[in-house]
Amino acid sequence: MGTTSNTSSMSNTSNQEISEIRWNHPDRLVWVATADGEFLGMVEGRDGSFIANNTLCGTYQLFTTLNEAAADIQQSAYDYLSAAGRSSTRSS
């Protein structure tokens, strides 16, 4: 059971903001998102679907693809920053 990671960059306007989301893949059907050392959420593959466990807004949602589930967690990170007054601008 190896661990792989992928990062998704977020551009910053202050050093209080999340600089990047790091995705770790500790198990075959589990992906864990962290940023600046904080746990953001995880995606679990189950029965052909993907469950996003989003710790920032405390929700579980079911998605048909891994990309949709990961995007939900990433969007919540942006929303969280905005609500906390730590606005972030997405990089394209």
What general outline do the C-alpha atoms trace?
globular
Provide the low-confidence segments as ranges: 7-16, 88-92
Q: Given the helix and strand composition, which structural class is it?
A: alpha+beta
The amount of beta strand, in percent, is: 35-45%
**Overall number of strands:** 6
Annotation field: number of helices: 1
Q: CA-to-CA gap between the ends? A: 33 Å
Side by side, the strands of the main sheet go: 1-2-3-4-5-6
How would you describe what is shown here?
The chain is built from one helix and six strands. The chain is of the alpha+beta class and 92 residues long. It has one domain. The termini are far apart.
Summarize it.
With 92 residues, this protein is an alpha+beta fold. It has one domain (5-11, 18-83). The protein is built from one helix and six strands, in the order E-E-E-E-E-E-H.
Helices and strands in order:
Elements: E1 5-9, E2 20-27, E3 30-35, E4 38-46, E5 49-54, E6 59-63, H1 66-83
Short key terms for the protein model shown above:
1 helix; alpha+beta; globular; disordered C terminus; 92 residues; 6-stranded antiparallel beta sheet; 20% helix
